[in-house]
Design goal:
Elements lengths: L12 H21 L3 H10 L1 E3 L7 H9 L4 E3 H24 L1 E3 H8 L5 H7 L6 E3 L2 E5 L15 H7 L4 H8 L11 H6 L3 H9 L5
Parallel strand pairs: 1-2
Antiparallel strand pairs: 3-5, 4-5
Length: about 200
């Protein structure tokens, strides 16, 4: 009886590399998904753009970016910017759904309609504009706090030297330096000094 030849197709080195790079690319996308829009924009801005055709594959370029490479193709920069923009719109939409107009704030706090605008200018409230209308995120209000606002929030707002949307992003994100609490949660727990100390470093790179 003649011998039986058995052929085992082992993956080539190239296949193994492509699979590894694909896994890295998926991990990098998960990393991007975990970032806030302003963080993604900062990442894109910090990388030098090269308009020449990338020498490496997309997965390899993503891998280099994750490792801190200082060059980014136009295509990759565009993808980062689109990711940031898409997340920004989604996040803004969710924010506006739980926000109040100035008249609603005035009614809730039993003040004149002008008062919310005055407090916005003084950095004792925070708001974003939506089609020309100021919208005040509801999480900043506290019936037990001074002037109906979470105690310490105006002091924090005054030292946050970043645009309004970045302020809102920072205030509502979990912070390792605050034992995993968001700055808003930390303020509610009476950690005003700790939150102010962290707020001073925001926007400083």
């Amino acid at each position: 009886m003649s011998g039986i030849n058995v052929t085992i197709d082992a993956p080539s080195a190239k296949d193994v590399m492509q699979e590894a790079l694909g896994s890295i690319a998926r991990g990098f996308q998960d990393y991007l998904n975990s970032l806030q829009p302003d963080e993604i924009k900062y990442l894109a801005d910090k990388m030098e753009t090269t308009s020449s055709k990338p020498k490496y594959s997309k997965a390899e370029t993503e891998f280099a970016a994750k490792l801190g490479a200082n060059k980014l193709s136009d295509e990759e920069r565009g993808r980062l910017e689109i990711t940031a923009l898409t997340k920004n719109f989604k996040w803004r939409h969710e924010l506006l759904k739980s926000s109040l107009t100035a008249p609603q704030v005035a009614q809730m706090l039993n003040t004149t309609r002008q008062t919310p605008h005055d407090r916005l200018k003084k950095n004792s409230l925070i708001a974003v504009q939506d089609n020309g209308v100021w919208k005040f995120p509801i999480w900043q209000f506290d019936p037990q706090g001074p002037d109906g606002v979470i105690a310490g929030l105006p002091d924090v707002l005054k030292v946050l030297n970043v645009p309004a949307m970045s302020k809102i992003s920072w205030l509502t994100r979990h912070n390792k330096a605050l034992n995993g609490l968001t700055p808003i949660e930390a303020l509610k727990n009476g950690c005003k000094n700790e939150v102010i100390a962290e707020a001073r470093s925001v926007g400083v790179y």
